[in-house]
UniProtKB/TrEMBL annotation:
It comes from Macrostomum lignano. Gene3D superfamilies: Kelch-type beta propeller (2.120.10.80). This is Kelch repeat protein. Keywords: Kelch repeat, Repeat. PANTHER family: KELCH-LIKE PROTEIN 32, LD33804P.
């Protein structure tokens, strides 16, 4: 049963047909898998925490890539800071998918190419980006950039804007403006924790801040929550079982710290 992809099943089929099967009810290990599968459907923003195989089978056509947002190192000057790109593996001159993807896993090293799939509403450097379990991409803050016709880049302040878009591989993303943060932020930690996203610390354009804001995905409202013990920027973090953890960062004195906060 460990090879059955319960997470890929319809949640209705899982509850109506699979869970009530007497043979499965007698097996404690299968019951644990079914419990995780229920959580997979009930708590979409925690799917990354669940040890479930949700990868399509090799015979199914699919593509696994890496989403790159506001790439400052793009060789194309017109795409710097303002694009959403997908880094895809290439197989025999095409895009990997289905059996081709399985074959790619045995090649050393694989070849990749970039596909531009959307344009950002602003040209930004180091914005905060998260993707929810319902495939909604949230883009917040960042240093605004202006790019001239000749390719020169200048800074235009720090943004406090929040935008959202539904992620699909097309060139027709529709960006929606949501409520603004109380503070402009760049180089900050932006983390999804269940039904909310947190903007933690960062640089406001004038100072490194310790302020933390919480955006509720249901009410679409920002509110301030408990600040960090010290101002930090460029920290990293992770959400686990409803808790937010921050690691490292640079304090207001320019020192790299090795602390962890929860």
């Amino acid at each position: 049963m460990k090879y059955v992809r319960f997470a890929c099943m319809s949640c209705y089929y899982l509850c109506d047909r699979v869970e009530c099967e007497p043979m499965l009810q007698a097996d404690s290990k299968v019951q644990e898998l079914l419990r995780l599968a229920r959580y997979h459907h009930m708590l979409p923003n925690r799917q990354a925490e669940l040890d479930l195989n949700s990868t399509p089978r090799c015979g199914m056509s699919y593509v696994r890539g890496y989403l790159i947002v506001a790439n400052p190192y793009s060789e194309d000057k017109t795409r710097k800071f303002n694009s959403v790109e997908l880094l895809l593996p290439s197989v025999a001159g095409g895009v990997a998918g289905g059996d081709g993807y399985c074959h790619l896993q045995h090649q050393q090293p694989p070849q990749y190419h970039l596909v531009r799939i959307a344009k950002l509403p602003l040209s930004l450097y180091m914005p905060g980006v998260v993707v929810t379990g319902s495939n909604q991409l949230l883009l917040a803050g960042g240093t605004q950039k202006k790019i001239s016709v000749r390719g020169s880049v200048t800074c235009d302040g720090v943004s406090n804007q929040l935008h959202s878009a539904q992620t699909d591989v097309s060139n027709s993303w529709t960006w929606q403006s949501l409520a603004r943060m109380a503070l402009p932020r760049t180089q900050f930690l932006f983390v999804l924790v269940d039904q909310a996203v947190y903007a933690v610390g960062g640089f406001t354009g004038q100072e490194v801040t310790d302020q933390v804001e919480k955006f509720c995905l249901q009410s679409l409202v920002w509110r301030s929550v408990a600040p960090l013990p010290q101002p930090l920027r460029c920290a990293t973090g992770h959400a686990y079982r409803g808790r937010l953890y921050t690691f490292g960062g640079e304090n207001a004195r320019g020192e790299i710290v090795n602390v962890c906060y929860r």
